[in-house]
Structure formats: C-alpha cells, structure tokens
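Standup notes, structure subgroup. Blocker cleared on the adenosine-5'-triphosphate input:
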Amino acid sequence: MRVRGLRKEYPGHVAVTGIDLDIERGEVFALLGPNGAGKTTTVEILEGHRRRTSGTAEVLGEDPGNAGRAWRARIGIVLQTATDAAELTVAESVRLFARCYPNPREPEEVIHHVGLDGKAGTRVRALSGGQRRRLDVALGIVGRPELLFLDEPTTGFDPKARRRFWELIRLLADDGTTILLTSHYLDEVEALADRTAVLAGGSIVAEGTPAGLGGRALSVATVRWRAGEHLREERTETPARLVRELSADGAEPAELTVTRPSLEDVYLELIGEKP
Ligand SMILES: Nc1ncnc2c1ncn2[C@@H]1O[C@H](COP(=O)(O)OP(=O)(O)OP(=O)(O)O)[C@@H](O)[C@H]1O
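Run returned:
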C-alpha cells in the first residue's frame, strides 16, 4: 500500500492533512491516535468507502477510489459499527458472507477462531456487544482477504477475548495477510504491530516500530534525590553514572528514585496531551 499526500476536507474542517503511508505485504500496521484524529477517515478512504479530497492512494495495486468487485473480494473489512441481519444465526451469517467470495475460509473454522463455537446457533440479535464484535471479525476474515482492515477491533472485548483475538491476528499475519488496524490501546499495538504511526489532528506525528516509538524520549531517565532541604531532579541518558557520583562518598542519597517515561507517557506527549 502506498499513500501520498492523502487529504480529506469536510465542510469547515480538515480531517486528514495530507499524509504519506507505506505498508508492505504481510505487515501488521497500526494507526494510533485519539478520538477525532482522522484514523477512521483514513481507513475508509483506503477501503474505497470514502472519497479523498486530494492525494494518491494505491491499495493492492489499485486506486481504492475506483476499484471494482474483484479488488473488493481481496480485502476484508471490520468496521466500527457493522450492519447485519439480526434474525440470522451466527453460523448462517458467516456462511452467507462466505458465499460472496471466490475462495472463502471454512465458516466453522472461522467461528471457532473467533471463539463463538458455543454461539453458532444463536441469532445475532441475542449476542452480547463483545460477541457481536467477534462476529464482525469473523465476517471480515471469512473471505480469506489478502488485506484486512480492522477499525478498533477489540472495543468491548473482555480481556480473555482480546488475548484470543491477538492470537488470531498473529495467525492471519503468519498466513501472509496484510493488516491495517486502528486502536486506542498501546498494549494492543505493542503486542501486534510491526510498525505504527501516530495520528493527531489529521497529521502523522510519529512513525516506527512500537518499541522505537519516541525512542529518544524513552532513553532519558529522571533521577530524583534529596539534598538537605531540597528535592533535586536531573534528566539524564546515563542515570547509573549520576547515581555513582551521588554516592561517591559512600553515603546513600536520600529518597533516590530513577524513572523513565512509559510508552503511554511518550504517546501522550506525542499527541500533545501530556498532563
Ligand atoms: N462525515 C463527516 N462530516 C464532517 N466531519 C466529519 C465526518 N466524519 C468525520 N468527521 C470529522 O473528522 C475528524 C476525524 O474523524 P475520524 O472519525 O476519522 O477520527 P478517528 O481518529 O477515527 O476517531 P475515533 O477514535 O473517535 O474513531 C473528526 O473531527 C470528525 O468530527
């Protein structure tokens, strides 16, 4: 996937300011960002569900703005709010979707992978919110997509369902599926993504591996200690050396702490919401 200068304007509001993205085949790429950052807008443009104002986009070799049915059959989509037929059962829904694709996965296998075995005969309207979401994921992957879009896929999942979902994503990635997901959860991005970009106010403010995100910030530690009346604080990339200096006379520095920002601190700083 190759995106250049992608921009989306709504009347009186620029939602995406002109971003560049490159996602390789087989890669799991996460778009992080606060509410209203432009994640859904970006993803919907790349899915061919929304028109861009300007810029170029190439997804699986085609422009999503005018790609046809054959292209659509190669992608899978899990939207934030799915529309579905509430009167069908889980198994009927998945089978119905499977029939829309030339080379679908086995519906029963997909139902198992999303952990809905026990609910296969249950009508969609009788599912809980988290179970509905899992069904959305099942419908998104049953067509054996080469590229899968997941917009906040684990919202409403209990912790066990999230872990199970992560395993599923890893399986799909091992199978060669390219995955573009949006998320608010840093742990999810750390667990799943090969690379991530942070969107804020419609612009990419950082990009890289989850571990390297804001890496320079992570390398700076804050050393605090008490010197007589005063609490002292120093930011340093070599905290061990500073602590050695402080204790050179054999005394134990009072109230000594060494802290580093968490990934969440770095993220909040990147999106300009550091408390
Ligand atoms: N159809 C629309 N018309 C006008 N403005 C819109 C429309 N859709 C989205 N916006 C605005 O564009 C901005 C980006 O919205 P978008 O849904 O892409 O954000 P997001 O990053 O996906 O947020 P969230 O995490 O809440 O899903 C927001 O300020 C939103 O209000």
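Discussed briefly. The pocket of adenosine-5'-triphosphate is lined by residues 10, 13, 15, 33, 35-41 (CB under 6 Å).
Next: hand off to the docking folks.
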